[in-house]
Amino acid sequence: METVIESYLNDFCDHFGMKDLDASTKFEDFVNYVSIPKLEETSESIEGVNVGNNGNPGVDGLAIIVNDHIVHSTEEVDYFLNALGRLEVNFYFVQAKTSTSFDMTEMVSFINCIKDFFKPKPTFAFNDDTIRLHEVKEYIYSKSIKMLQNPTLTIIYGCLGQWSNDNKNFEAAINTVLAELKSTGYFSDINFKPYDRDLLKSAYRELRNTISRSIIFEKHTIVPSIKDVDEAFVGMLPGSEYLKLISSEQGDMLRNIFYDNIRDFQGFNSVNSEIKNTLEDQNSRDKFALLNNGITIVAKKINKTGYTFNISDYQIVNGCQTSHVLFYNRTLIDDNVYIPIKLIVTKNYELMSKIIRANNRQTTVGNEAFEILSPFHKYLEEFYIAESKKHSIDLFYERRSNQYDHDNLTRSSYVTLSSQIKSLVAMFFYEPHSSTQRYFGELLQMYTKIVFKEGDLGFPYYAAGLALNRIEKLFYEGKIEKKYKRFKFHIIMLIKTLVIGAEKEPLNKKKLEPDCEQLISILINENELLNYVDKSISLIDEKLKDVSHSYYRNAHGTSAFTDSILPEKKSKKTKGTVSYYNDDRGFGYLDVKAPQDIFFHISDYHMNNSGIPQIGEELLFDVVDTEKGLRALNISKK
pLDDT, tens digit, for every residue of 306-328? Predict the structure, then answer.
């Protein structure tokens, strides 16, 4: 392997705590990381798109992106469909080879695997991870009426060779198989992207290094001195100059400048379509600055020479929608298009939080958007620091993205908001199936009234985050068989129940402090932890004996399986009957002989049942008080 690539690969493995993986998996993860958009900066997110293990034919990376988020389950598809009322879907397939040349036979075989994946019933011997994603794909196409256009398909082949556009034989062979894919009518667009050694290097450099861009910002005004602000400017920036701030060297959209932005791209909804229409109308382009609210950029450093601004370590904190529309319609941007810009230079995070809140109040955002800005998370960050120092371990709560990037810590030392809520829900609310199947923003909505509250103890949060961190570490070191990885949330739940019992306690109850301290003492002792892991896996194995392969493949996502492995029943189910169900919209209500009926969604019903709910059907379920009202979860037939 070339020396520079090898050093980048080693840096990647050190940064994400992947040193103990085998060589082929490391390279697969590396190529997936640099080529698939929307990946979070976590080893869990990177591993989640790697389907190359266990003898999977031809495909090493597979990502299904729905409404700008990578999804792994039909429940997540439903969540994003309900949030926007439509589906915008992109499929990414990756093959990674350490060979020093592009192999035409391998590439054609790879594309043939993709063709087979999109058949209703594949003939290739795909592994369980790929089959589960195939089921998600089938579900997405069953909702095609909700798509504005067919999904796009991006095919990525990465290797250590040098790609040449002059190879006519390669081009002819690839175009032939791509034409067959296009003829299916499944896709609105198909792109083939070869990642050679030079592109792999440049893409990785851009992701790992602090982003710096130079722009010509002539039409600007200096803002008077403000406390905690180094400098600030307002003005009009040419659209062509703004594109420099949001575009990568490879011509893609930079993915790490929106990490602290509180909204993802909402697609071409009515507002974004109006922005697009302004660009498409030659007579309206010069009015763009008058018709747009503008963009706010927060940077940690700038160097200014005349009208040339060199901006470093910056984030787009308001203007995500405008940025995406501009990028996707960049060929329409001419000298008449100007963007209203606020450029703020500060290192004060609390001020940045206020800026984010103030600049995004005019639009509706998800609960996960502002959650991390609440005071409890500052307390939790400090609790993690104190508790980790007490136990002489590196574990930190990352309440803002890239918070510890300059501290030479590996990503495996961080607990993100996503991993915190998922581990907490699994361990202390006995919902590992929800942690596995649901987007973390949905979990925040479901549990908003009982988590991250002033007065909560830090101990259960820390114990849950530590448990997931330690279990992930044991998987990477090969000390737990990888086939149990999909049960990681079940394992941490079982460890908790085996050590301190299965009672569900409020997170502010003082009893949790000594219980969690006992739990933490086991989690930081690897020999003791492995003993409890073995006991947990034995319970899982016992319930998976003599079951159908279909049940085995999907058991981790069902509440019925969770209930079967719990040493004690965690709660008594509520009984109710279906009083209303809307098949078109996928929701209904359950009559529980009380003043208020209970809302349920079809995705919750399908976690344990098939078919369509019938009026009068009797069901058992748990009730959760969400920010939108009472909701039924873990639904089973009486």
Answer: 899 999 888 888 888 899 999 99
SS (H, E, C) 13-59: HHHHCCCCCCHHHHHHHHHHHHHCCCCCCCHHHHHHCECCCCCCCCC
| CA dist list (Å): 171 to 93, 110, 158, 211 | 19, 15, 16, 34
C-alpha distances (whole Å) from 557 to each of 72, 76, 206, 615 are 11, 12, 36, 26
- Residue 505 to residues 324, 338, 430, 508, 574, Cα–Cα distance (Å): 44, 55, 11, 8, 19
Size (the chain), residues = 638
CA-based nearest residue to 360, from 320, 327, 412: 320
pTM score: 0.76
Tokens of 24: 């082929």
Reference 78, options 437, 430, 590; nearest CA is 437
Cα 45 from Cα 299, distance rounded (Å): 27
- Positive/negative CA dihedral, 339, 342, 347, 352: negative
* pLDDT tens, residue by residue, 397-446: 987 666 666 556 677 888 988 899 999 999 999 999 999 988 888 888 88
- As a three-state string, the secondary structure of 103-166 is CHHHHHHHHHHHHHHCCCCCCCCCCHHHHHHHHHHHHHHHCHHHECCCCEEEEEEECCCCCCCC
- Beta-carbon neighbour count of residue 79 at 10 Å? 23
Nearest to 125 by CA among 116, 137, 138: 116
512-523 helix and 458-476 helix, angle to the nearest 10 degrees: 20
* Amino acid identity at 198: D
b or e along 340-367 (b: 16 or more beta carbons within 10 Å of the residue's beta carbon)?
bbbbbbbeeeebbbebbeebbeeeeebb
CA pair distance 24, 14, nearest whole angstrom? 16
Rounded-to-integer distance, Cα 590 and Cα 618, Å = 9
pLDDT digits (tens, 9 = 90+) for 438-477: 888 888 888 888 899 989 999 999 999 999 999 999 998 8
CB contact burial 199-211 (16+ within 10 A = b; e otherwise): bbbebbebbeeeb
Q: Which stretches within 488-600 are classed as H helix?
A: 488-500, 512-523, 526-544, 549-554, 559-565
Least confident segment among 12-21, 319-328, 361-370: 361-370
Q: For residues 303-314, b (16+ Cβ closer than 10 Å) or e, as one string?
A: eeeeeebebebb
* Residue appearing with tokens 């040098």: 162
Nearest to 32 by CA among 6, 8, 7, 51: 51
Place of tokens 């175009």: 175
Which helix (H) or strand (E) segment holds residue 352: the answer is helix 349-359
CB atoms within 10 A of CB 460: 25
Burial of 135 (0-12, 13-18, 19+ CB in 10 A): middle
- Locus of tokens 């203007």: 319
Cα distance between residue 334 and residue 285, in whole Å? 8
E-strand spans in 223-259? Answer: 231-238
Q: What is the pLDDT of residue 364?
A: 46
Furthest-apart CA atoms within the chain: distance in Å: 74
